[in-house]
Specification:
The relative contact order is 0.14. This protein has 15 helices and 16 strands. It has a single domain, classed as Glycosidases (TIM Barrel, Alpha-Beta Barrel), CATH 3.20.20.80. The longest helix is centred in the middle third of the chain and has 29 residues. It has an eight-stranded parallel β-barrel, surrounded by five helices. The chain has 486 residues and is of the alpha/beta class. The protein is 39% helix and 14% strand.
């Protein structure tokens, strides 16, 4: 529709907030009936530029389950949100959060994943969290599966590689939809679903020591099962709680061509298509044609149930969310590969990068917002974006993190530009408003938060919460609805 004017600021109902995951903040991994999850059997890495999720084997899982400590598995302790949730949510409210994105741990509610009846103590914990959010008028945005599932389902049926996992997951989703009807306006199904192409951490399927072909076969089959489960969850929610909305979640990996050479441009286009394939299925309701060739070229055959394609077509998601941390270059002529948040590619000489080698590209966020809006015409939601850094606590108990403020300011500015371009953007939940355990390396020293948590990589510390300089800055951003970024 032609208009003479265009939006020049964030909409009045823009959802400002922050995002965390159960396995990175909750702790309390073995109390109140909770089962062990896939996230809690992955050991911390010794190299902060090496992600250890692919090192999991059946033997390592069994050894982890037998280990009753958290020494090698920091995600088991998190930052004890389980016992500090009231204090933490009060701090979020002080910043002015309109929304808080968190995940409900499947294994806290169904410890083995496939029980007939849920664990009431697990449900009661999320009752308390939701009540606390309501107290401060903070809307919940709940992720149903954020890089964790009951490890029992891995040992029993190799996680999402088995079609049986669909029914187990949808028993879980139906349970929480009914329990929290009218309390949760926004849900997400699978966090960064596309990272299932990297294996275990997202699919719960062990595929180490297999050929590349066999790994791809297992991973894409597991992802198909997730697509179906997501569509069924959408059907369930629309019936149980018609006012609530459900979205997909993608790790957005915008890729640039390494040169104007048409071969490089085409290669970059293919990489972007392979990234957006997942949202194509979940938002458009069908497998895109370009993947037919990819599957054929790689000898991959997706086994589908008789009604699968009809279910996908009938129950697409209501909105699209994604994480954005960096961009990469495809077919770069020279330079070492960069690796960040499951994205790999050539180094871009025009960009700075974090201490973990993640390249920083605020303008890329505007680019990807425009591309995704043009492609899908569904509301978009940036549900992860942030800077992991080694924050230093001064002698007088302060954290001066101007570098984080600068990073967030530049990305928020580009979101505002995208809105002016015409993008329909629902909200922004920056990643890690409180320091948490790193997903990729299980470090505590990789900090994202506006709130410092006194805990080191060995789990030592008082767990005291301390406001960083960025706390007051984000408070100002929210109060001004994104106008005051100084």
């Amino acid at each position: 529709m032609y208009k003479k004017d265009y939006p020049k600021t964030f909409p009045d109902n823009f959802l400002w907030g922050g995002a965390t995951a159960a396995n990175q903040v909750e702790g309390a991994w073995n109390i109140d009936g909770k089962g062990v999850t896939t996230a809690e059997v992955v050991q911390k890495t010794t190299d902060r530029k090496h992600m250890s999720m692919g090192d999991v084997t059946t033997d390592s899982i069994k050894a982890a389950v037998a280990d009753t400590t958290d020494t090698l598995y920091p995600k088991r302790r998190g930052v004890d949100f389980y016992h500090h949730y009231q204090e933490d949510i009060k701090l979020f409210a002080e910043m002015g959060f309109k929304v808080y994105r968190f995940s409900m741990a499947w294994a806290r509610i169904f410890p083995k994943g496939d029980e007939a009846e849920p664990n009431e103590a697990g449900l009661a914990f999320y009752d308390r969290v939701l009540a606390e959010l309501k107290k401060y008028d903070i809307q919940p945005l709940v992720t149903l599966s954020h890089y964790e599932m009951p490890i029992n389902l891995t040992l029993k049926q190799n996680g999402w590689a088995s079609r049986d996992t669909i029914a187990a997951f949808n028993h879980f989703t139906e349970t929480v939809f009914k329990r929290y009807q009218g309390q949760v306006p926004y849900w997400l199904t699978f966090n960064e679903i596309n990272t299932g192409t990297w294996g275990f951490h997202e699919t719960g399927a062990v595929d180490t020591n297999l050929s590349q072909h066999d790994q791809l076969q297992i991973r894409y089959q597991a992802l198909h099962h997730q697509f179906v489960a997501s569509a069924i969850a959408t059907k369930q929610l629309h019936k149980i709680d018609p006012k609530a909305k459900i979205g997909s979640m993608l790790a957005r990996m915008q890729t640039y061509p390494g040169s104007p050479n048409p071969v490089d441009v085409q290669a970059a286009q293919l990489e972007d298509d392979k990234n957006l394939f997942f949202t194509d299925v979940q938002a458009r309701g069908e497998y895109p044609e370009y993947m037919n060739r990819y599957f054929a070229d790689n000898g991959i055959e997706i086994q589908m149930g008789a009604d699968d394609q009809a279910i996908l077509a009938k129950y697409p998601v209501d909105f699209i969310s994604f994480s954005y941390y960096m961009t990469t270059v495809t077919k770069a002529d020279a330079g070492e590969q960069v690796n960040g948040n499951m994205a790999t590619g050539g180094r871009n000489p025009y960009l700075e990068e974090s201490e973990w080698g993640w390249q920083i590209d605020p303008v890329g966020l505007r680019i990807t917002l425009n591309e995704m809006w043009d492609r899908y015409r569904k509301p978009l939601f940036v549900v992860e974006n942030g800077l992991g850094a080694v924050d230093k606590l001064t002698a007088d108990g302060h954290v001066h993190d101007d570098y984080r403020i600068d990073y967030l300011r530049k990305h928020i500015t580009q979101m505002k530009e995208a809105i002016a371009d015409g993008v329909q953007l629902m909200g922004y939940t920056m990643w890690g408003p409180i320091d948490l355990i790193s997903f990729s390396t299980s470090e505590m020293s990789k900090r994202y938060g506006f709130i410092y948590v006194d805990q080191d990589d060995a789990g030592e510390g008082s767990l005291k919460r301390i406001k960083k300089d960025s706390f007051a800055w984000y408070q100002k951003v929210i109060t001004s609805n994104g106008e005051d970024l100084a």
